[in-house]
Design brief:
Blueprint lengths: L1 H31 L4 H8 L2 E2 L2 E2 H27 L5 H26 L16 H9 L7 H25 L9 H19 L5 H16 L6 H8 L12 H25 L15 H27 L11 H10 L4 H11 L3 H29 L9
Length: 386
């Protein structure tokens, strides 16, 4: 089946990509705290067509990452785990809990401070890292649990995208309705071409770039264009050669092995000094850490429990509430999306660096605790009881 093959390709690329992200992050941190720190920081500040290199990575290449997320989400809606209300209810409730509870914890710890705008930081889950960690557990992990984690993370990404669109406009530009209107008009044309069964790849690429360009200058973050354009690409659930399927397949490796590693290198160049530990008690740091490490597993498990007990959905075979909790811990690996949101939430570089550092600490904690928790919970393959 198309959905099965695409899921396997997706899972494999996310696994390898997650491992590469780990090495890129470590490499970046080492260089940022070495005698070469100044030169390393300078690389990302090189001027390219009027903007820093890091700007083109964050606002340009990451739009392609969001485009891939849109294609994956579209595939899940048509033929995957979100293709019916019955299938979608469980991961939707789990993701909702995994977003609301961390945001609430962040609100409680940061209410009344000038860092309250960072509430979206602990709401995100990094698919690549989470999948990489669960894959390290080998064949003991049931396929149903991997699918649950993947569907949960995809919906989580959609939630993060909605939060970015609603609460984090481009801080450098006021909202320009003319530019936004042009972007929407081009999108409508692309949708019309889709309905007319036009399958010319070049048309959608040129149209997508145009949407991104006008969105970039509208005051709304340009990466949102990637998701919107993805939904205009023709998709046929019975045709593995549909334009959407071909684009998704073609983008897996470039995103996993080029775009996300570049993002990690450019955005984890954090200098850690003797005063860094002092920030751990600050509202921002505690809100991020508690939101990701505590809020994620509690929210995911609690909302899953409520949905199942209300009879809205059922747990898949080989998945129980203990294993949902273990997956929920891995949900606390924020990384890519959390770092992305932190750069939109703050303009103060000190807040951004503090947020990034705590995201790394919290994500590492979630990865280690989640790995060993699931290792214990998955010892008995036949233990499917709640």
């Amino acid at each position: 089946m198309l959905s099965t093959k695409l899921f396997q390709d997706f899972f494999k690329s996310q696994t390898s990509g997650g491992i590469i992200l780990i090495f890129c992050t470590l490499f970046s941190l080492i260089l940022a705290n070495s005698p070469f720190a100044s030169s390393y920081h300078g690389i990302w500040e090189v001027n390219v067509f009027g903007h820093h290199l890091s700007h083109w990575i964050n606002d340009g290449l990451m739009a392609i990452f969001f485009f891939l997320i849109g294609l994956e989400l579209k595939r899940e809606i048509f033929v995957g785990e979100l293709s019916s209300i019955k299938k979608a209810t469980l991961p939707i409730f789990a993701a909702l809990g995994g977003m609301l509870i961390p945001a609430f914890i962040f609100f409680l710890t940061n209410n009344g401070t000038d860092t309250i705008s960072g509430f979206g930081i602990p709401m995100a889950t990094d698919i690549a890292f989470a999948v990489a960690i669960i894959t390290m557990l080998g064949k003991r992990v049931p396929l149903s649990l991997k699918i649950f984690l993947t569907a949960l993370a995809v919906i989580d990404d959609l939630g993060a995208i909605i939060v970015i669109a609603l609460f984090y406009p481009n801080p450098e530009l006021p909202l320009d309705f003319t530019q936004f209107g042009i972007a929407m008009a081009i999108l409508l044309v692309l949708f019309a071409l889709n309905k007319a069964k036009v399958k010319n790849t070049l048309i959608y690429i040129v149209g997508g770039i145009a949407v991104w360009w006008f969105m970039l200058h509208s005051g709304i973050h340009a990466t949102i264009a990637g998701v919107l354009v993805a939904f205009t690409i023709p998709f046929d659930k019975d045709d593995a050669k549909s334009l959407s399927a071909k684009m998704e397949h073609a983008l897996h490796l470039p995103v996993a092995f080029i775009i996300l590693p570049l993002f990690a290198l450019a955005n984890t160049a954090i200098t850690i000094d003797s005063g860094s530990l002092e920030h751990f008690s600050m509202p921002l740091a505690s809100g991020i850490f508690l939101g990701l490490v505590i809020g994620k597993p509690v929210g995911i498990t609690l909302f899953t429990f409520i949905a199942v007990k209300l009879g809205l959905c059922e747990l898949p075979t080989a998945v129980n509430f203990k294993r949902v909790f273990g997956v929920g811990i891995l949900g606390g690996i924020g990384f890519t999306m959390s770092i992305f949101v932190s750069m939109l939430a703050f303009t103060d570089p000190d807040y951004i660096n503090e947020a990034k550092l705590m995201i790394l600490v919290a994500s590492l904690t979630a990865a280690v605790v989640g790995f060993f928790t699931l290792k214990v919970l998955l010892k008995n393959k036949q233990d499917y009881s709640n």
